[in-house]
Specification:
Blueprint (H helix, E strand, L loop, with lengths): L1 E5 L8 H14 L4 E5 L5 H5 L11 H6 L4 H4 E3 L5 E4 L5 H7 L9 H7 L8 E5 L6 H9 L2 E7 L8 H14 L5 E10 L4 H14 L3 E7 L2 H5 L7 H4 L4 H16 L2 H5 L1
Parallel strand pairs: 1-5, 1-6, 2-4, 2-5, 6-7, 7-8
Antiparallel strand pairs: 3-4
The chain binds adenosine-5'-diphosphate and magnesium ion.
């Protein structure tokens, strides 16, 4: 199982929208997918229609060692897509974990105990910070997917993210790679977003996915129906873009990781 963390410490850049719809696209193309909601806001869980009451065991309990991956996994309405949900408890985890042993490896260790071969791909939806939750995701992951919003300050904060990645590599996880940067909320009628997309490509090069996620109202409506956009309206431009992103992502994955 390859583990991919979706991270950017800025809020509102499309991490959760990407997590939900990429996970759905991967599942739809036959990959058994596990989505881990690691944001106390629990938007990925809500967006996949999992009510709060069903989240008896969540990523919070998993990090604290109170349950196993198998206890916490819930299947979603999407065939081949499972989720480990998040609840507001998780906002306390950063503090509660301070006294725990191996506090940066809680997620990694929990996933290592999971049944082998049950999923092909695991996506981790990170909170908008570089705190202990995101660090746990980066320690557990082999690769990072970074959504960048096409706006004037897109690249601001990226150096901080890259510094964190360097520190994680140096201390805990030397093999961590940045597998791709996904441009989100692209508006082709707006010349500024075009300019931003060009600048980001000039600056970051090939690491930027060719697929660009357009600004599309269906993507923002779908979560209120508890559905991925890919089910809510599979023909909308947002859904098509996430299918394209999934294809590109699969092409970038080492095939042996997928098989493992
Ligand atoms: P993050 O997880 O990085 O905080 P979200 O995925 O929750 O970001 O997105 C922030 C807001 O923008 C949400 O209301 C979401 O529905 C909306 N949104 C995200 N991506 C798009 C898009 N491509 N088009 C339109 N709205 C979007
Ligand atoms: Mg989010």
């Amino acid at each position: 199982m390859i583990r991919i963390a979706i991270a950017n410490q800025k809020g509102g850049v499309g991490k959760t929208t990407t997590a939900i719809n990429l996970a759905t696209a991967l599942a739809a193309t036959g990959h058994r997918t596990l989505l881990i909601d690691l944001d106390p806001q629990g938007n990925a869980s809500t967006g996949l229609g999992i009510p709060n009451l069903s989240r008896e065991w969540s990523s919070y309990h998993l990090l604290l060692g109170e349950c196993s991956v198998e206890d916490a996994v819930i299947s979603t309405k999407v065939p081949k897509l499972d989720i480990i949900t998040a609840t507001q408890d998780l906002s306390g985890a950063e503090i509660e974990l301070i006294d725990f042993e191996e506090r940066t490896h809680r997620l990694d260790n929990a996933l290592a105990q999971a049944q082998e071969g049950r999923w092909d791909i695991c996506l981790i939806d990170c909170p908008p910070s570089l705190g202990l939750l995101t660090v746990n995701a980066m320690v557990a992951a082999q690769a990072l997917l970074v959504p960048l919003q096409c706006e004037f300050f897109a690249l601001e904060g990226l150096s901080q993210l890259l510094q964190t990645v360097d520190r994680i590599r140096a201390r805990f996880n030397p093999a961590l790679t940045i597998m791709g940067v996904a441009l989100t909320m692209y508006d082709r009628r707006n010349r500024l977003t075009d300019q931003v997309a060009d600048d980001v490509r000039a600056c970051l090069g090939d690491v930027v996915f060719n697929t660009v996620i357009p600004r599309n109202v269906r993507l923002s409506e779908a979560p209120s129906h508890g559905l991925p956009a890919l089910i809510y309206d599979y023909k909308c431009s947002g859904s098509e873009a996430y299918m394209g992103l999934a294809r590109e992502l699969i092409a970038r994955l080492p095939q042996r990781e997928l098989a493992a």
